[in-house]
Design a protein that fits this description.
The structure holds 2 protein chains of 2 kinds. Helices cover 70% and strands 2% of the residues of chain A. Chain A is an all-alpha fold. Chain A folds into 2 domains: 73 residues; 79 residues, no CATH class. Chain A has a two-stranded antiparallel sheet with strand order 1-2. Chain A starts with a helix and ends with a helix. The N terminus of chain A is likely disordered. Chain B is an all-alpha fold. Helices cover 70% and strands 1% of the residues of chain B. The chains are: A mainly alpha, B mainly alpha. Chains A and B meet through helix 2, strand 1, strand 2, helix 3 and helix 4 of A and helix 8, helix 9, helix 18, helix 19 and helix 20 of B.
């Protein structure tokens, strides 16, 4: 219980946090979508329960629980949640998306090298020497360790000139 | 005699140099995961599954089991030295463990914790040996309705114990089941929720989902945090406890073993519940209960023994009935399935040698951890001195490799990123993640047993009421969820438990 929720007078003009409302709405929407599409899958066949039965039940549970949660929030809004550091989320997610998009084209070694360099040098502000050593070990080193040590193949570049120099 | 022979056979298989190496590596990696505060056992085990992909199934499972109980050891080190639990089950150890560090007795605390863990883990494994055959045979008699009912109980317990709100726990469980349903329906063969993507016909990759929801979302929820505190490794001379400390620890270890073993058998209980209750037991029964909180050795010995007895006992329902008792075991079960092994009663009839080799390796692993843990304390603490930016970069590297190598496809890396964001949203909304992992693994099995039951009864739901075991179990499950009389509420200290 935070001071904020204690200060809110029960029953009168309670304010549910927008993020909580969005969450409840999203779960309810997923529930409705599942309910509708599982009817299309077939709830019951001549052989017994159909492929849609179990999802139908889960969709129902989601919708019902979202409703209960909304009622709980309206009666007594939950305390303010811990904030999220948007800078961290954006930096990590965007760099991961770029890495995943470029991995097949540039190969694991080059794309991972750049990814690690970004996180170590630009975000982490480590020295050039330690950044380069760790980035090399994590990209080229990991590639050879997985390929030859564990027999797990990591992707090589689809771009011929890079491929030819072993990347 | 039969059991003993098979166990000896298991030891012979586990003692090959490769399998010993896998057990050793697993213990090492598990301890590191336990030491690192940012990454818990659930994501840790999932992350390391790719390392074992190309090993033979015995070696792979030996390594993953070693990682699993290694995390239970590793979490203690930071609890004692830094007052920061490396994983949730060691949280309670911080009270007396850190107090002992301030009194200059860190070495004794760590040694007692390691010995207690060894005792608890070994006794629980003996329990597994004794229970394996009879329980496995009992398990063979269990039909689909009883199996379904048993899973209902496990999930109900976890829902009842997880988080502050049961509504949120149920949402989490339902989401896990829905994610598990993506792909071709196992009975009728119809594609479900694939959004027309061929990639999704086989379902979403379990490893990518777990690594995203547990691992990546944890990294995403970090904020610019403070500098890591200075760590000093205790010197070797101070590692040995005094005779008095040994004598005081023995009864605490005995109580801890009993509590951890008993609770480990119950699906839905996590290790944190055991260590918490063990601490409570010391407060009630210890002769030195007045010293608890001020650096009493019992406060380390009890919980740490319970924690490891729990971790090993939790393997009993997995091996004999195919029911994962906690989220980490659920991940382990996912790894079994990926290796083509179905944990449960059939494991002993179909893959008897593998099962016994794994059990034998549990004994070896517990011994290895005892040998590794104490003398290498200096090494473990030096890991904590690695700057967080380097650790973050390396953990991200492993996550990408882990997600990619499951199907050798970049698609799974995107799946991991997506589920990382979902996990972040769930954390922000205070929705517990544990029910989701459990239903994610159990979902397909649960649906199959439900549909098989209804096919047997030709669509009559009465089959769950007419069979005595099933009706008792389902009644128990409903009672757990709906009865406020039971007061099965989670202790407050567990609300911060990332495992639940």
């Amino acid at each position: 219980m935070t001071t904020e929720s204690l200060l809110t007078k029960p029953g009168r003009a309670v304010r549910v946090a927008p993020s909580v409302l969005t969450g409840i709405g999203a779960f309810a929407a997923v529930g409705v979508y599942v309910l509708v599409s599982s009817v299309g899958l077939g709830l019951w066949t001549s052989l017994g329960p159909g492929p849609g039965l179990f999802p139908f039940a889960m969709g129902g549970v989601l919708v019902a629980m979202s409703a209960v949660w909304l009622i709980q929030e309206l009666r007594q809004p939950s305390g303010k949640a811990e904030g999220i550091d948007r800078g961290v989320v954006i930096a990590v997610v965007v760099s991961l998306v770029l890495l995943a998009s470029l991995m097949d084209l540039l190969g694991f070694q080059l794309s991972m090298f750049l990814f690690l360099l970004y996180h170590l040098k630009l975000r982490g502000r480590r020295t050039w020497v330690s950044s380069l050593i760790i980035a090399l070990a994590g990209s080229v080193g990991a590639f050879y360790a997985f390929n030859y040590g564990l027999n797990v193949a990591l992707p090589v570049s689809a771009f011929t000139p890079l491929n030819l120099i072993g990347l | 005699m039969d059991t003993l022979n098979e166990l000896l056979g298991g030891f012979a298989a586990a003692m090959t140099w490769q399998n010993l190496l896998f057990a050793f590596l697993g213990c090492l990696l598990g301890t590191i995961i336990g030491v690192l505060p940012g990454i818990g056992p659930v994501a840790g085990v999932a992350l390391l599954i790719p390392l074992t992909l190309n090993l033979d199934s015995t070696g792979a499972i030996i390594m993953l089991c070693a990682i699993f109980y290694g995390t239970a050891y590793g979490g203690t080190i930071t609890s004692v030295l830094l007052n920061t639990p490396g994983e949730a089950a060691s949280a309670i150890t911080t009270i007396d463990g850190y107090a002992m560090t301030k009194l200059g007795k860190a070495g004794a605390a760590l040694t007692i914790a390691a010995v207690g863990s060894f005792v608890g883990g070994t006794i629980a494994t003996i329990g597994l040996v004794a229970a394996a055959k009879p329980l496995g045979e009992l398990g063979l008699l269990v039909g689909p309705p009883e199996f379904f009912a048993l899973m209902v109980v496990g999930i109900s317990l976890l829902v009842a114990l997880a988080g502050k709100s049961m509504v949120k726990a149920v949402i989490s469980g339902a989401l896990g089941l829905l994610i598990a349903m993506v792909g071709i329906d196992p009975v009728a063969g119809a594609p479900r929720f694939t959004f027309g993507m061929d990639r999704l016909l086989d379902g979403v990759s379990f490893v990518a989902v777990i690594v995203g929801v547990f691992g990546l979302s944890e990294l995403l929820s970090y904020r610019k945090d403070s500098q890591a505190p200075a760590v000093h490794a205790p010197n070797l001379r101070s590692l040995l406890p005094t005779g008095r400390e040994w004598r005081r620890s023995a009864p605490a270890m005995a109580r801890g073993t009993g509590i951890g073993f008993g609770l480990g058998l119950i699906p839905g209980m996590t290790g944190s519940v055991s260590s918490l209750l063990a601490y409570g037991a010391e407060k009630k029964f210890s002769r030195h209960r007045n010293e608890l909180g001020k650096g009493a050795i019992e406060g380390v010995a009890g919980p740490e023994t319970a924690n490891n007895a729990h971790a090993n006992a939790a393997l009993i329902p997995l091996f004999t009935l195919g029911i994962p008792a906690s989220p980490t075991i659920a991940v382990l079960m996912g790894a079994f399935l990926q290796q083509g092994l179905t944990p449960g009663p059939t494991l002993f009839s179909e893959h008897s040698e593998i099962a016994w080799a794994i059990i034998a390796s549990l004994f070896i692993g517990n011994l290895l951890l005892l040998l590794l843990n104490v003398p290498l304390v200096g090494l473990w603490t030096s890991i904590l001195r690695v700057p967080s930016s380097i650790l973050t970069a390396l953990i991200l590297l492993f996550m990408v490799i882990g997600a990619y190598t499951i199907n050798f496809s970049v698609f799974d890396v995107f799946v991991m990123i997506g589920f990382g964001l979902l996990g972040l949203a769930l954390r922000h909304l205070d929705i517990p993640l544990a029910p989701m992992v459990l239903t994610l693994v159990l979902g397909p099995l649960m649906e199959r047993s439900l549909r098989e039951s209804l096919e047997i009864s030709q669509g009559d739901f009465g089959i769950f009421v007419n069979r005595p075991i099933a009706v008792v179990l389902i009644g128990l499950g409903l009672l757990i969820v709906f009865s406020p009389l039971l007061k099965l509420r989670k202790p407050k200290a567990l609300n911060e438990d990332p495992e639940t």
